[in-house]
Amino acid sequence: MKKVLKVVVGVSGASGAPYAKRLLAVLAEKRALGEVEVGLVLSRTAEQVWAHEIGGSPRELGVPVWEGRDYAAPFASGSAGWESMVVIPASMSSIARIAHGISDDLLTRAADVMLKERRKLVLVARETPLSEIHLENMLKVTRAGAMVLPASPSFYGRPRTIDEAIDTVIARVLDHVGLANALQKRWGDEPAPEITGGDVWAE
Ligand SMILES: Cc1cc2nc3c(=O)[nH]c(=O)nc-3n(C[C@H](O)[C@H](O)[C@H](O)COP(=O)(O)O)c2cc1C
């Protein structure tokens, strides 16, 4: 029987709602195919930033949503067996609380569960520039077993649109939770075409 991967997606109040929306859309497709079970947890500021950046609400995506301190959510306990969590975007505040084991909302509690159970926790960190405090907290969560995967698009696949640039990040997130995808050109897939113009976006 095919294994259904249980993935928690945490959305915090960092800039980067388009990343979260894209990941949730891909996971919703995989959910419809019976490949994944998805739970969405919103931080206290997630919806405010989402509405500002892309309009609407993450509640409109048809994925089950939890928030606040609703510790009745299945992934608030290790016994429910959720294998992976992605926090996308991950604010410096959420990362700080995760780094210090301060589970004062469902998002940080679910992340704490992933770490204590030695499961997969991917933090799509977003802030610039970074202070010493941010860097120390990212080192701390890395040492505790999380993966810090910055919201840094790559350009070697020559993305031409914002959506394509976003997919370079989402592809890496899916790779790290173990979900097959063809969202971006892989290094070595095909030779890059010659660039002829002087402008960075020249055809
Ligand atoms: C429009 C907007 C953009 C923000 N962008 C960031 C960001 O990129 N990184 C970050 O760490 N915080 C950012 N913040 C601040 C966080 O929302 C704030 O620190 C909040 O307390 C984070 O809490 P949460 O992680 O529980 O959502 C932003 C806030 C707003 C309103």
Tell the overall outline: globular
Radius of gyration: 17 Å
- How much of the sequence is in beta strands? 15-25%
The helix-strand sequence is EHEHEEHHEHEH
Distance between the termini: 47 Å
Task: Give a concise summary.
With 203 residues, the protein is α/β, with parallel strands linked by helices. It is built from 6 helices and 6 strands; from the N terminus they run βαβαββααβαβα.
Explain the overall architecture.
This protein is 35% helix and 16% strand. Helix 3 (92-99) packs across helix 4 (106-116) and helix 3 packs across helix 5 (132-143). The chain has helices at residues 17-32, 46-54, 92-99, 106-116, 132-143, 162-177, and strands spanning 5-11, 36-42, 65-67, 84-90, 120-125, 147-148. Strand 2, helix 2 (46-54) and strand 3 (65-67) form a beta-alpha-beta unit. It is globular, with a radius of gyration of 17 Å. With 203 residues, it is of the alpha/beta class. The model has no long low-confidence stretch (mean pLDDT 93). The chain has six helices and six strands, in the order βαβαββααβαβα. A six-stranded parallel beta sheet has the order 3-2-1-4-5-6, with helices on both faces. Flavin mononucleotide is lined by residues 12-15, 43-46, 48-49, 52, 91-94, 126-127.
